[in-house]
Design goal:
mainly beta, 16 strands, 239 residues, eight-stranded mixed sheet
Amino acid sequence: MTSSSRAVGALAVLAAALLFAGCAAGPGSTTPTNSPDSSAGASDGSDDFDGMDGALLDDGRMFAVVTWGSSTCIPQVDEVTADGQTVTVTLVDVDPDAVCTADMQQRASVGALPAGVDPTQDITLQVTYGDASDDVELDGDAAATGTPGSPTEYLPSAGWVDDGTLVLLTWGSSGCPPIVESLDAGTLTVTFTTDDAKACTMDMAPRATLLAFGDDAGDDDATLTLVGGGLDGTVAVRG
């Protein structure tokens, strides 16, 4: 059976309703946000700029797709449909007429898995972004207890994109995404800047942060330590 979700439009309305009512909702009820300032060391010198990667997040409720392009023009997940364990994902530019920086960085776009997908089993993301397309294979996470389509717990989560790069999912104001100050590959620690004076939007959105620690950092049982930015704590890195 085919299921579908749309990450734009009506979801923004649901996000506003969520904040007004103060009740829990699923991960698809807020518009995913990404910030060029939130990525740290997200360029590994690769020439394979057409390739895409991905990770499972939010205990199996959500996913990230990693693409290459301008750090200031990050694509957004538009449509997601599923047929069994095959998930079709369409990425779009938020503003096709935007003026983008001419750098080449990895960017993470996050979306919600449709109901019916089993995150404990392998998943294939068939991703289309403009003229580019790629299949992203996600290994099933036997420890995932979240059910796609169910309410999120708004907890940080993280997944490996490759041997040295992970994507961190946090929840909070879309106007104040985490900004990385420093990375310590030896202890797998990320320190965020703290700006208590900045005015933030009063929404609750998923924010994707790419962290590149280097090729030797990847470990299936790794624990990421978060410092500063109101995010202090530890997160198990899955994948």
